[in-house]
Structures are given as structure tokens and as C-alpha cells.
Amino acid sequence: MSVLPKSVEKVIDEFSRLPGVGPKSASRMAYHYLRSPNKDATKLANALIQMEDSVKNCKKCFNVAEEEECNICSSPLRKKDRICVVEEPLDVVAFENSGVYDGVYFVLGGVISPADGITSEELRFKELKNRVQELLSDANTLEVIIATNPSLEGEATASYIYDLFKNLLKEGKLKLTRLAMGLPTGADLEYADRLTLKKALEGRRNI
Amino acid sequence: MSVLPKSVEKVIDEFSRLPGVGPKSASRMAYHYLRSPNKDATKLANALIQMEDSVKNCKKCFNVAEEEECNICSSPLRKKDRICVVEEPLDVVAFENSGVYDGVYFVLGGVISPADGITSEELRFKELKNRVQELLSDANTLEVIIATNPSLEGEATASYIYDLFKNLLKEGKLKLTRLAMGLPTGADLEYADRLTLKKALEGRRNI
């Protein structure tokens, strides 16, 4: 005899698959909907179905989009002489929310991580190469900003991208840059890790 | 120009309403589904709709159920001479998972909390009284175990239940008990709060 009705167990099971959601939180979420009036569960259900039906990848940058091209790639206001290569669509959101970047993006779809069975085959390197060629044919200069995370896998992926464009770089056709590493705003030197301090020292600038 | 497709924003918005889910986690959840293959979002959506369609309250104890009566109330194995009064269905799950109780339950639907605008009117006190009368008519003795949380509101609700059954208690028709308060297993006396220590001392037992 199970304690929970089967349909509730199924919802808890689905919620538990979400990142950062354990069985306890998943139960709390399911019971939230059992308590809430106004058919809130149906609202979430409809939103999910609507999202799955309407969202695709932008054919140029592979960010999420409801059209063939995302809002950013299709905007005439965005500079096409710089392309920022990120791991995931959420990284695009982070840049956009900060309002510090006015170029276009490219979403790789992850990082090379042999431990997780993700090889370069799984990521969009071929598409990245095509996109860079496409932008190069329209612009005089192109900067490829590698914005993978400063993790082991992110660094490995950055090297892979560097190799990918080594020849074009030698030919002087493009510029390859990597996001700066150093102390984050508000950090306390005392608590900074060794690698961050090393990078901050290496990257020190004249004032 | 919004960064996110509208359908994604809608899903994030719905996820943010869940208890303990902030905007960042809600985004991560939505993007999890955008990344995942196998129509996982539809699976959650269908599970939610199925749950909302099939789950109702047990007519006896108001626990969640897919039938008129929940698995516990309808089981001939459960003792009907004790009823454990809890706040929420998840409290029933906690008791059941621990396997320490073999009686029936009653789910109040919350606690009296004037600060949140929840008065005794909103809770199932009338239904509790009826259920207790019903059990009394079948059994020689009945123990009402008050298992509201040891919070201010839980204690106030426990007092209210005591008042509710004061007369029956005087007539010797039932026994009213409250869960023991004291040190939890594995606790460290050094870090126990004053009230817990006080309750542990007050409730000390001969060994």
C-alpha cells in the first residue's frame, strides 16, 4: 500500500528530475499544487506544453527563439563584428541582463567533458565555424569572444575553439579573445582562492 | 526587445510561484526542459494535469486520495481507536515513512495564524469534530493525538483542539495527547535552544 496517490507520485518523480530539486522539495512542489486553488497546476502544464511547442533554436546562434532567428540575431542594432561564444542559453541571458554587450552570440550547447561523455562531436563546433565564416564574409573584422565558464571543462573548450580558428587567426582575418579572469566585484582578497589570485596578478593592468 | 521568448518567460513565471523557488532556479528549471530531449516538459505537464484531475480529499480524513476514501482510512489494518491530527498531507507522509503509527489521521488544512489571516473558520475543525464523533460511535475508546507543529501557531491550534474536545474529555469518552517535545536524535545539548531544553527538562522520564 503506497502512502501517496499514484498521480501525485508521478508529479513528484517528474519534479525530482529538475536540477537542484531533491525528493523533499519535489514533494513540497507537488503538494503546493494540491493546496492551491485556481488550477495553478494546469497553468504550469499549459505553459510547459506551449513552450515545448513554440521554442526552437535560432538557426544562426542556436539560442532559444520562437522564430527562425532569435531577437538578437535578427536585430539591426546588434553589431555583427563580434560574436560571443557561450555554453548555454542562460549565459546569453546573463550578458543581456548586464547590458554590457552589443554584438551577437553563439551557443555551443555545453562544454567538452570526457567525464560526462561529452566529446567535441556533441557540441556545435561545425556550426560555429560556419557562422564565423558567414560573419567574416560580411564584415571587415571579426572578434570571437570565448565566454565559456572559467572551469576546467570551460578552459579545455576554449582551447579547442582556439585550435579551430588558429589558421584564420594567423591569416589575420579575426581576433580571438577570452573573458578576463581576476577578482570579482566585492570580493575579499583574504578569501580569494589561489588560482583566482594568480589570474588577478597575471592580468594586472597599469592605472 | 525581450531577451527571452515569451513562452519561456511564462514557464519561468509559473515555476517562480513554487515554494522555495527563486527567479534564478526557475530559469534553470525552464532551461532544463529546453535542453532535455524526450519531451520531458510534456511529461511533467501531463503528470500535473492528471494529478489535478484525479486527486481529491479523502472524505474521512481530508488527506489526498484518488478514491472517495484514502488508502489509510479504507484499510482494515489501521486501528480506528486513535486519530492523529496533522496540519498538512505532507505530515501524513512523514509519519507513514517513519512507520511508527498504525492509526488513522485527520488533516486540518493548516494552523490558526491571525498574522496570515487564517482563522479557525478556514480550518476543518467542524469536520474533525464530526469525524471524532463517528469514530467514538464505533469504538470503546478513542485517542486524539494532536500532531500540529511545535510552532507558535501549531501550539495555538493544539489549544483550540483541546477546547473543542474539553467536554468529551471530561465525560471520559476520549483521551487527548500531544506529541512529545524535547531534544531531537543526534542533537547537541550545547546548541539546543532555550525552549527545547526547557521542554526536554519538563518532560524528563524515569529510566
From TrEMBL, chains A, B:
Coiled coil: 118-145
Extent of the signal sequence: none
Source species, domain of life: Bacteria
Keywords: Coiled coil, DNA damage, DNA recombination, DNA repair, Metal-binding, Zinc, Zinc-finger
PROSITE patterns per record: TOPRIM
A family per Pfam: RecR_C
Function recorded in the entry: May play a role in DNA repair. It seems to be involved in an RecBC-independent recombinational process of DNA repair. It may act with RecF and RecO.
Protein name in UniProt: Recombination protein RecR
Biological source species: Candidatus Dojkabacteria bacterium
Source species taxonomy: Bacteria, Candidatus Dojkabacteria
